[in-house]
Design brief:
Layout (H helix, E strand, L loop, with lengths): L2 H16 L7 E2 L4 E2 L5 E2 L4 E4 L15 E10 L12 E2 L3 E4 L3 E9 L4 E6 L12 E6 L2 E8 L5 E6 L11 E6 L28 H29 L7 H29 L4 H31 L10
Parallel strand pairs: 1-11, 5-8, 7-13
Antiparallel strand pairs: 2-3, 3-4, 4-10, 5-6, 8-11, 9-10, 9-12, 12-13
Length: about 300
């Protein structure tokens, strides 16, 4: 087969695969319930985080009941140059504590998802609400949105589908900051570059090093200026070395613990963060008390500590 004919057949096959005019959208409404809001069938449809009844913490009642239909497919990317797939809508907004039913329609011959991240993990496993269907089909699921103002990422998690345009943002209440690279809504974080200039990791790393060095030099210059002018807020000379050492240790601990704590508290409300911190402190105190008790037993030779009679 010659090359032009091969290319023509490939284009024709792709056009047939993405043309939904002759496709029948199959509705998946007989799925098996596996518990914890997880439902699926044997034909490529799945729902995770289905929650039509349980209110998230901070919601006294369901504020509103809404339904949306989201279409996904190659044809919706045509208005966004440089993309390959997209949803038919890139931004949603609802009141906090809204009971939201999402009807997800896949109009391609491949698998697509409508996945929402950052939900409370105590209610939604993995902090996620997830709709998925393989090939032309429709699947539906319900969730109750948390309280508060926040912007949530909605995307398809199939490899390269989000990177090639299949993502949106869902705002609860007033929402938070807009997410980057939402097609038609916000500017691309890494815009396509067709200049032909090759990417150089070395140049990028050099720019990063330069920025860090400039920031360090500026900070050192400011400290020196404060010391020379005798700024009222400057620490006494005898405490300067201690403060400097404490600052360095604090920064080091912060850099080490930041990734762990960010993963630990990801998706939690402020109330949940406080409760988790208190629980961690309680465990730490319990550990210290237990350690002290063991030390006392070791040095006194007593197997137990006698309590005074009431």
């Amino acid at each position: 087969m010659n090359k032009p004919l091969s290319i023509a057949l490939s284009i024709w096959a792709f056009a047939v695969a993405t043309d939904v005019s002759a496709l029948e959208i199959r509705e998946h409404n007989q799925m098996m319930n596996h518990g914890d809001g997880h439902m699926m069938d044997m034909d490529g449809a799945m729902v995770m985080g289905h929650n039509p009844d349980t209110l998230p913490g901070g919601c006294d009642r369901i504020a509103a009941t809404k339904e949306i239909t989201v279409h996904a497919g190659h044809k919706y990317s045509e208005k966004f140059p440089g993309t390959m797939w997209a949803f038919d809508q890139q931004e949603f907004q609802f009141e906090p504590c809204t009971k939201l039913t999402v009807h997800f329609v896949n109009e391609d011959q491949i698998r697509h998802q409508w996945m929402m991240h950052g939900l409370p993990k105590y209610l939604y496993p993995g902090g996620m609400f997830h709709l998925e269907v393989s090939g032309p089909g429709k699947v539906s699921g319900t969730l109750i949105l948390p309280p508060g103002d926040k912007t949530y990422l909605v995307h398809c998690d199939i490899a390269q589908h989000m990177e090639k345009g299949m993502k949106a943002q869902l705002k609860v209440g007033k929402g938070g900051d807009d997410l980057p690279s939402i097609p038609g809504v916000t500017a691309s974080l890494f815009p396509d570059d067709y200049s032909g200039k090759p990417f150089s990791p070395e140049e990028f790393q050099a720019q990063e090093r330069s920025a860090v060095e400039q920031a360090a030099a500026q900070a050192q210059k400011q400290v020196k200026a404060d010391a020379e002018t005798g700024t009222a807020n400057s620490p006494p000379a005898e405490d300067a070395s201690f403060l400097s050492g404490s600052t360095i240790v604090g920064l080091a601990l912060g850099l080490i613990l930041a990734p762990v704590l960010s993963r630990r508290f990801k998706g939690m409300s402020p109330g949940e963060v406080v409760a988790t911190v208190l629980e961690m402190v309680a465990h730490a105190v319990g550990y210290v008390v237990d350690l002290l008790s063991r030390l006392i037993k070791t040095f006194t030779g007593k197997k137990s500590i006698a309590l005074p009679d009431k």
